[in-house]
Amino acid sequence: MPGTKSARGAQEAVELKLDLRSPLQSAEKPQNKDSSLLDGSASELPVLEKTKGITAFQALIHLVKCNMGTGILGLPLAVRNAGLLLGPLSLLAMGFIACHCMHILVRCAQRFCRRFNKPFMDYGDTVMHGLEASPSAWLRNHAHWGRHMVTFFLVFTQMGFCCVYIVFLADNLKQVVEAINGTTNNCHNNETVIPTPTIDSRLYMLTFLPLLMLLVLIRNLRVMSILSMLANISMLVSLIIIAQHIAQDIPDPSQLPLITSWETYSLFFGTAVFSFESIGLVLPLENKMKDTRHFPAILSLGMSIITALYIVISVLGYLRFQNDIKASITLNLPNCWLYQLVKLLYVTGILCSYALQFYVPAEIIIPFAISQVPKRWALLLDLSTRFTMVCLTCILAILIPRLDLVLSLVGSVSSSALALIIPPLLEITTYYSEGMSPLAIAKDVLISILGFVGFVVGTYQALDELIQPERPVTFSNSTTFI
Question: Which tens digit of pLDDT belongs to each residue from 40-51?
Answer without folding.
Answer: 333 333 333 444
